[in-house]
Design brief:
Distance between the termini: 61 Å
Structural class: alpha+beta
Strand order of the largest sheet: 2-3-5-6
Number of helices: 12
Helix content: 55-70%
Radius of gyration: 38 Å
Shape: elongated
């Protein structure tokens, strides 16, 4: 039971995202006692080996385990990134609080990204239902989960190299021997050979090539988790944006229908006055043209609304008929919260899964440099085998038919035409590419947040002014309508104020929809999370 006594225990890391330091501690890779892993077949194999060989095996394994802590290649360090100290835009309140480390740790274990329920701040039950349904049933969620399982399995495959391997084999050979063929006496014989054996081996990770491989795989595993979080952030924002577009178009269609009704009512009044000779035919004709123009807008808005609903159904992962039952009750265009607290740039970026994913990708690529460098050094392995061979199956496992061998083997790629050196340079270049990609991700993230802040702030002021204009136009319409009926103003002035009123109402609804969308985009740009209220 000596060989198995030095099998390293393989414990999959449950939370690889925290491996942000210089690789994996060497002590985690030292052999540990694991007698409980002994199988009956292997016990039989080892019991057949003399006790003196047991001692030699144990001594060899202990000596080989001593230098197994050396790890070549650069240790990963968090890159230094320069970001602004504060946001230039004023679309949200900012505050500097040192709470992200604790919050991020909790999020890693909970497999979530920041305050995942940011959409609840819009106080819309239909929106809450749709986002929850999408995050549960959409194919993107299943794809992200599969990627995590794939990365974890790849990590465990690489980690299995720390353990010895053991194999069994058996063979039956039957054939005819004809001595006359080789100049002997005439005659032949038919023989059957029975062969059985056990083989075992262990490649010692002297210079940390396997450790660097596992380090890279764990970083890729963490990157897969961050990819999942980022996918869910994007999916939630996509559902919210399509939902807000749908509600906005519903509101615009309703207002366009009301506008057409107002023009139809005024047209009927003018027709009645024209029959009495109180209104010229030119006024009736002009009003009729404006009525047709308003009615022509309805099919266009209906089309846009249906397309928005189809896109919303697709983002949720349901068919349009199912979606119709989910959004039947409408409370109008969602209203974003008045204040969205955004942390300082450096902390807000730490909450973005895409930034954390690129950082983990960089860590994985850095570890691959060590994997390449380990090929410059000797490869030491220990292997052995136990073999039985006999012409009779009944005495196959007897003492006389047994043979065994055990010993270390050293391989060293001394010269390969600079292949290994160029492989190292290749991995170093790939690391520089990853670093550049990480820095670009930082720049893109800062830009995205700044744009979202700017759009939210300016669109909010624009929507407020549009609301004030609607109220002012409404008062003007009542006064000018009375003046027209009294013959104090012409039809053109009444038409102008009526057109401006309904156009302003339409634009006010569109502005409120854009403001809600920009708020959702801001939540998305900071990683789907928000600083809690103090």
């Amino acid at each position: 039971m000596i060989i198995l006594g030095f099998i390293p225990i393989c414990h999959p890391v449950e939370n690889p995202a925290f491996f942000t330091g210089p690789g994996i501690s060497c002590r985690n890779n030292l052999p540990v006692m694991a007698d409980t892993l002994t199988a009956p077949m292997i016990s039989g194999y080892l019991s057949a080996v003399p006790r003196s060989i047991h001692i030699k095996i144990a001594q060899t394994m202990l000596v080989l385990a001593i230098p197994s802590c050396m790890t070549v290649g650069p240790d990963y360090k968090d890159p230094e990134i320069v970001v602004p100290g504060k946001w230039h835009s004023k679309g949200a309140k900012t505050q500097d609080r040192d709470y992200w480390t604790e919050r991020l740790t909790a999020d890693q274990y909970a497999k979530r990204s920041g305050a995942e329920v940011w959409w609840r701040r819009f106080d819309d039950r239909s929106l809450n239902t749709l986002v929850t349904l999408a995050r549960k049933n959409h194919p993107t969620a299943a794809l992200a989960d599969a990627r995590i399982r794939e990365a974890r399995a790849q990590r465990n495959v690489l980690a299995s190299a720390w353990s010895p391997w053991i194999g069994a084999r058996s063979q039956i050979q039957a054939g005819e021997n004809n001595p006359s063929t080789f100049g002997g006496s005439i005659g032949s014989s038919y023989t059957t050979n029975y062969i059985a054996g056990l083989d075992a081996g262990w490649e010692i990770d002297l210079f940390g090539g396997t450790r660097r491989g596992v380090e890279a795989a764990e970083a890729e595993w963490a990157a897969a988790i961050e990819w999942q979080r980022d996918a869910l952030v994007v999916l939630s924002a996509e559902v919210a944006l399509h939902y807000m577009a749908t509600r906005t178009l519903e509101e615009r269609l309703s207002r366009a229908t009301t506008a057409a009704a107002d023009f139809r009512e005024l047209h009927e009044i003018l027709v009645a006055r024209e029959e009495k000779g109180l209104t010229p035919k030119a006024d009736v004709a002009e009003m009729h043209a404006q009525l047709l123009t308003r009615e022509a807008r309805l099919p266009k808005l209906e089309q846009e609304m249906k397309v928005a609903r189809i896109r919303l159904a697709n983002s949720v992962g349901v068919d349009p008929e199912t979606l119709a039952s989910l959004i039947k009750k409408s409370r109008g265009i969602p209203v974003p919260p008045e204040n969205i607290l955004i942390d300082t740039p450096v902390n807000a970026l730490r909450n973005r899964p895409d930034v954390r994913r690129e950082e983990r990708k960089l860590a994985a690529q850095t570890a691959r440099i060590g994997m390449a460098e380990s090929e410059l050094y000797p490869i030491l392995s220990v292997s052995g085998g136990l073999n039985w061979e006999s012409t009779s199956s009944s005495d196959l496992f007897s003492q006389v038919n047994r043979a065994f061998g055990f010993g270390p083997k050293l391989r060293w790629r001394i010269f390969q035409g600079c292949r290994i050196q160029n492989r190292i340079k290749e991995e170093e270049a790939r690391t520089d590419i990853r670093l550049a990609a990480y820095r670009q991700q930082i720049i893109d993230a800062v830009t995205e947040i700044e744009i979202a802040l700017t759009r939210l702030e300016t669109e909010g002021r624009y929507a407020d002014k549009q609301s004030e204009a609607v109220e002012a136009h409404l008062k003007s319409i009542d006064l000018i309508r009375k003046s027209y009926l009294a013959g104090l103003v012409d039809i053109r002035r009444l038409l102008n104020v009526l057109i401006e009123y309904h156009d302003t109402r339409d634009e006010e609804a569109a502005a409120r929809g854009r403001r809600a969308g920009f708020a959702a985009a801001l939540f998305k740009s900071v990683g789907g999370g928000q600083i809690p209220e103090p």
